[in-house]
Amino acid sequence: MEPILIKEGLKFKDYDVNVYRTRYVSDPRNAIIITDQITRELLFVASCNLPEYPCGEHQTYIKNWSENEGILPWLIEQGIVSKPITSVPTGHVEAQLVNIIHLQEPVILMN
Predict the structure, then answer these.
(1) Which of 18, 32, 53, 109 could form a disulfide with 46 if both were Cys (CB 3.0 to 4.6 A apart)?
(2) CB 35: neighbour CB atoms within 10 A?
(3) Would you state the pLDDT for residue 26?
(4) Predicted confidence (pLDDT) per residue in 59-79, tens digit
């Protein structure tokens, strides 16, 4: 099964991208992935799976550090996720819990 397209034809950093909603293989929680618009190559996994923290049916934790720096404000600007509800520690950084605005049914993330 393919991830479900949320928005296509966007620009993030120097890439022309599409944004998809899917689920983690190891856990039924939501994941947000960003692919190259043409090749569909996976460029970024915008979310992170933190099973030790609560997460609602239409929520996910956003990884806004390292190669993903700047992804949270960009996702908010694109109308894909809400502003953060809360932040939780994960190592030396924090992940932000957000609502996913597009509430389509996600599918399994294919590796």
Answers:
(1) 32
(2) 19
(3) 82
(4) 999 999 999 999 999 999 999
Contacts 24+ apart (CB under 8 A), 70-75: 70/13, 71/12, 71/34, 71/44, 71/46, 72/96, 72/98, 74/12, 75/19, 75/32, 75/46
Which residue has 């397209």 as its token pair? 5
The Cα angle at residue 59 between residues 77 and 9, in degrees rounded to 5: 40
pLDDT for 37 equals: 95
* Cα–Cα dist 36/17, whole Å: 5
Q: In this structure, what are the phi and psi dihedrals at residue 67, rounded to the nearest 5 degrees? A: -65, -15
Q: Which token pair is 31?
A: 């994941």
